[in-house]
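Bumping my old thread because nobody answered last time. Still need a sequence for this structure:
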């Protein structure tokens, strides 16, 4: 079964190894994702996000540019295995030639520092999807609220503060350019603003259903329904904390059965057409039933067991996301 995964943080993980002077390679490594395991998992396309933490990186734009360089430096070594895509026709061409595809994305709109020129230049460098925020307020908008008490993290929906005026300009420019808007990590109010100020389909690349797991990183039923009506997709996130509400003291485990539970709910609310995959590999820790791309057949088998048809599984694994990319990517 072909696989399209809308989100992983593998490039950033490889860059950490580079900074530490360790041996690293996109071909084979000890991260969740490498090219060898993607090939075993029958991957069609992997989105490679450039993840930037504004609380850590004092010069986020420069740091992001280093990640862009690593993406190209590593993937260009293996152009016989995987091709970098900048338009939908590139995906089709790679499939025809028996190659996988890689799409460059950004996880933190703050790297643009509110400059539309920076956004356009990232587009020229091949970025074809971006989140507006990560976990911190930036020039574009607000995430949902996160705070810590006694070492424990707490989350709360942000219903008041959404996109800034600059954020509205950005999403409209992203639509014009042909860059996919990604609302994962954006506040509830911000997601409403994206619906209000845009017209085309967009995605939540790695977000689940809030009715099933209450973390505000997940989408409400209303969001899922409206996203589906817009023609968008949300990618099932494999992170245990976004899959299940664990009680204190329980050992969190990312389980395939919970992923399918979210899919069933999303199908009921928005239809099968709004569901995709967004693993968050190399951005999540903890215990995982699916530890790498070669484990995706576990999910396929469980979906079959739970009554999903072959065409529905194909839609979730790759068809729905490719439909959005075909419409958005120039």
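Sorry it took so long. Here it is:
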């Amino acid at each position: 079964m072909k696989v399209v995964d809308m989100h992983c943080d593998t490039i950033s993980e490889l860059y950490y190894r580079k900074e530490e002077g360790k041996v690293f390679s996109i071909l084979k490594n000890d991260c969740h994702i490498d090219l060898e395991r993607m090939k075993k998992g029958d991957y069609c396309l992997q989105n490679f996000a450039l993840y930037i933490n504004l609380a850590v990186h004092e010069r986020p734009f420069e740091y992001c540019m280093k990640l862009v360089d690593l993406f190209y430096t590593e993937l260009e070594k293996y152009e016989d295995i995987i091709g970098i895509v900048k338009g939908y026709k590139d995906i089709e061409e790679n499939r025809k030639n028996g190659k996988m595809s890689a799409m460059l994305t950004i996880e933190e709109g703050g790297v643009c520092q509110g400059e539309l020129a920076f956004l356009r230049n990232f587009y020229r460098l091949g970025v074809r999807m971006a989140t507006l925020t990560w976990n911190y307020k930036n020039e574009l908008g607000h995430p949902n609220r996160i705070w810590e008490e006694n070492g424990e993290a707490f989350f709360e929906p942000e219903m008041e503060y959404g996109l800034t005026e600059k954020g509205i300009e950005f999403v409209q420019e992203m639509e014009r350019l042909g860059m996919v808007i990604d609302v994962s990590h954006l506040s509830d109010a911000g997601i409403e603003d994206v619906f209000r100020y845009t017209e085309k389909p967009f995605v939540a690349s790695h977000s689940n259903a809030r009715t099933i797991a209450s973390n505000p990183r997940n989408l409400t039923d209303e969001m899922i329904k409206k996203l589906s009506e817009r023609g968008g997709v949300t990618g099932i996130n494999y992170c245990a904390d976004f899959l299940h509400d664990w009680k204190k003291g329980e050992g969190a485990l990312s389980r395939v059965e919970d992923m399918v539970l979210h899919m069933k709910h999303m199908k009921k609310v928005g239809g099968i057409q709004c569901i995709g995959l967004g693993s968050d590999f190399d951005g999540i820790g903890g215990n995982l039933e699916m530890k790498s791309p070669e484990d995706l057949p576990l999910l396929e088998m469980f979906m079959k067991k739970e009554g999903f048809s072959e065409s529905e599984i194909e839609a979730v694994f790759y068809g729905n996301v490719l439909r959005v990319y075909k419409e958005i990517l120039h």
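The first strand starts at residue 3 and ends at 5. Let me know if any region looks off to you.
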